[in-house]
Automatic annotation (TrEMBL):
Protein name (database record): Adenylosuccinate synthetase isozyme 1
Residues at which IMP binds: D42, E43, G44, K45, N67, A68, G69, H70, T162, R176, N255, T270, R334
Gene name of this polypeptide: ADSSL1
Similarity comment: Belongs to the adenylosuccinate synthetase family.
UniProt cofactor(s): Mg(2+)
One MF annotation (Gene Ontology) recorded for this entry: magnesium ion binding
InterPro entries xref list: Adenylosuccin_syn_GTP-bd, Adenylosuccin_syn_Lys_AS, Adenylosuccinate_synth_dom1, Adenylosuccinate_synth_dom2, Adenylosuccinate_synth_dom3, Adenylosuccinate_synthetase, AdSS_1_vert, P-loop_NTPase
Catalytic activity: IMP + L-aspartate + GTP = N(6)-(1,2-dicarboxyethyl)-AMP + GDP + phosphate + 2 H(+)
Pathway(s) the chain acts in: Purine metabolism; AMP biosynthesis via de novo pathway; AMP from IMP: step 1/2
Record keywords, A-Z: Cytoplasm, GTP-binding, Ligase, Magnesium, Metal-binding, Nucleotide-binding, Purine biosynthesis
Length: 456
């Protein structure tokens, strides 16, 4: 790839300038399809991305770090991806880690090597890493743990983070002391000086933090050399992908709308924008190059970590969803909290993301229930509210209005098309579709790639 502007670039730009040309949706180049979590994470984004990635040329992560855990099951083999885009499985596509992602280098290589042993060969040759991505250092992860302990001690509760250093690394980025991949690959003397300063800054905030700076720098130097062949100017790489020959570009969201730093259940959120804007800022994609935006939602709701969860079921039904759904965090191994599908949050996610369609996963988990409830509205002091409350104390107090559906009590795991589903399951799906006002394009009935009913 060349880092200089080509004649084609200059021609495009001067033509646009000469004609005072306003770009329309039809002449902006290739479009990126975006897959986003519409709940509190773990909706099955990995599976949806895998499905679309079989035809993609470029699969990108735009935000988050290895707090994400995306499962893909192909030919009976289960893969879990944390930093690598799930499209890395497709040997014909390129995977890109964008500038909005925070990268823990030991985590990245551990993940790659683990998957290499599972048979995922040549991943390093298919991976591109943006030079603008920020680095998560080991001490960021230690600080994540210290902050959680402090929250517990001072406020009586923590966030329940994944302790992958995500909050501290994005804090360093926002306070403009963070270090990026381009810094690591540049003058190592300068990088070392800035790394020492960053450690010092954290040690003055957290006196118990111990860092073997020399050992860290030695390791980082080694990682730098392993990483170097994969690093590109991410903005220019994306520009070429958008404006070169026709290409299928896929963006894999991590975390989810209700964990978004701006729109989520703050402060019980992650530290990046997991909604559609994150695809633009985390990859340098202009808004006009965003094509379809697919929201992923389970047929019920789960949440890992602390925070309000209006439809949570702390009873036998919640336990059944947890055990049947194998609801255990991919990254932390924690049990996921479970409850009924909350359409208020999915509609809220749609307000922000403007979904083109929804993938409804894990319908099969509901197969044994006599009755299924769906949260359709929130009430405060007996009155329906039209918005999703920003304040967590308010959210804790809402009363959920439910619709109740009869269970279909039939095994749906072998269903491969709409007509294979029992009428009561079809009714449940159509209700969800109508209530959100977005078509459901896929229905998941099992873990593997083929267990996805495509509706249109
Ligand atoms: P992600 O973080 O959104 O990619 O989701 P996770 O991988 O963390 O969690 C989703 C879990 O549900 C994984 O174990 C998937 O294999 C599994 N899964 C996804 N879709 C379905 C489905 O339709 N049915 C069943 N039974 N499991 C599914
Ligand atoms: P995927 O991509 C579920 C949650 C954590 C915690 C909060 C903050 O697999 O859907 P962090 O470590 O990011 O500072 O933790 O956010 N969380 C997730 N929960 N799935 C995820 O990602 C998550 N990423 C973060 O449990 O409550
Ligand atoms: Mg997950």
């Amino acid at each position: 790839m060349s880092l200089t502007w080509s004649a084609k670039d200059h021609k495009n730009m001067s033509q646009a300038a000469a004609t005072g040309h306003k770009r329309s949706r039809n002449d902006t180049g290739n479009k990126a399809t975006v897959v986003l979590g519409a709940q509190w994470g773990d909706e099955g984004k990995g599976k949806v991305v895998d499905l679309l990635a079989t035809e993609a040329d470029l699969v990108c992560r735009c935000q988050g770090g290895n707090n994400a855990g995306h499962t893909v099951v192909v030919d009976g083999k289960e893969y879990d991806f944390h930093l690598l885009p799930s499209g890395i499985i497709n040997t014909k596509s390129i995977s890109l880690i964008g500038n909005g992602v925070v990268i823990h280098l030991p985590g990245l290589f551990e993940e790659g090597d683990k998957n290499d042993k599972k048979g995922l060969k040549g991943w390093e040759k298919r991976l591109i890493v943006s030079d603008r991505a920020h680095i998560v250092f080991d001490f960021h992860q230690v600080v994540d743990g210290i902050q959680e302990t402090e929250r517990q001690a001072t406020e009586g509760k923590n966030i329940g983070t994944t302790k992958k250093g995500i909050g501290p690394a994005y804090s360093s980025k926002a306070s403009r002391t963070g270090l990026r991949v381009c810094d690591l690959l540049g003058d190592f003397k300068d990088f070392s000086m800035r790394f020492r300063n960053l450690v010092h800054q954290h040690q003055s905030m957290y006196p118990s933090l111990e860092v073997d700076v020399e050992d860290q720098l030695k390791q980082l130097k080694e990682y730098a050399e392993r990483l170097r062949p994969m690093v590109r100017d991410g903005v220019y790489y994306m520009y070429e992908a958008l404006h070169g020959s026709p290409k299928k570009i896929l963006v894999e969201g991590a975390n989810a709308a209700l964990l978004d730093i701006d729109f989520g259940t703050y402060p019980f959120v992650t530290s990046s924008n997991c909604t559609v804007g994150g695809a633009c800022t985390g990859l340098g994609i202009p808004p006009l190059n965003i094509g379809d935006v697919y929201g992923v939602s389970k047929a019920y709701t789960t949440r890992v970590g602390i925070g309000a969860f209006p439809t949570e079921q702390l009873n036998a039904e919640g336990e059944l969803l947890q055990t049947r759904g194998h609801e255990v965090g991919v990254t932390t191994g924690r049990k996921r909290r479970c409850g009924w599908l909350d359409l208020v949050i999915v509609r809220y996610a749609h307000m922000i993301n403007g979904f083109s369609a929804i993938a409804l996963t894990k319908l099969d988990i509901l197969d044994v229930l006599d009755e299924i409830k769906v949260g359709v509205a929130y009430k405060l002091n007996g009155k329906r509210i039209p918005h999703f409350p920003a304040n967590m104390d308010v959210l804790q107090k809402v009363e959920v209005e439910y619709e109740t559906f009869p269970g279909w009590k039939t095994d749906t795991s072998a269903a491969r098309k709409w007509n294979d589903l029992p009428a009561k399951a079809q009714n449940y799906i159509r209700f969800i579709e109508n209530h959100i006002g977005v078509p459901i394009k896929w229905v998941g009935v099992g873990k593997s790639r083929e267990c996805m009913i495509q509706m249109f």
